[in-house]
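Fold Annotation — chain and its backbone

Fields — amino acid sequence, structure tokens

___
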Amino acid sequence: MTDSRRVTVGSRASPLALAQTEEVLRVLRLDHPDVRFEVVPIATGGDSNKDAPLLSLGRGTFVKEIEAALLRGDIDVAVHSAKDLPASLADGLVIAAFGQRRNALDVLVDRWNSPLDELPPGARIGTGSPRRISQLKAARPDIELLPIRGNVGTRLEKAVGNDYDGVVLAAAGLLRLGREDAISEYLAPEICTPDAGQGALAVQARSDSSEIIELLSSVNHALTSIAVRAERAFVAAIGGGCTAPIGAYGQVVEGRLDVMAMAAEPDGSRVVRVRESYDSGDPEAAGRLVADSLISAGAGELASWDGRR
């Protein structure tokens, strides 16, 4: 560190991103009271391009500018939603820690405060995620799924406005913002398997910043790290990008790594899921193995895939 008593931390400028960064900093400040941590909000391409549908944005759109600032040395640390990071990191960067995961599930918020299976036919539900769209269409082909953009607060407002009857969001975002009261239903992973890394925080540093990497070690949550490393290895092995309807959800249960993975046709006409249990000592191997299992179960035949066949 140039100044051992000052560390700059890059983050997106949204309320949720800043809340996530503060979650990491609470741990760091307790463990390193002699260090002054400064947050540097950074606008990303995904934040600037508010009108573009999520389908047109690749994985990494919300981290690229922050990673560039980290590589230039403008900041010392970057805090991201783990699900926003592409499977392959930029050269010169490492994930130094995974902050403790909050609830990884998707949730439904709607004007009737009803669960998914009780929504009226034709209900207008906002989501721009191919993964969510395919699974929701499979579960409720009679509801209308509409694209939606904006931060969590904006989407919550739209959910009960003139154009939507509800929205699907990540539970972790609402929990971190203190908006658990808005949740109508937590969607079971057998209905809507989460995105890889959902609910977890990835803390990046430059690979040559040994002091910073050591400093960040106190943030790392071992069980979260095991699960998310497996999920990220699954994404890398399966070859799916942001536009592929895929999901993966790992949990360490009684010392074993339980991984659920899914792939689907975009229209929800076919959803393939597998669930496997592995040794938790090699999460990357587990991620690759569950990708192989999913392909063996028929996912390699899905027309939407641009990865392994």
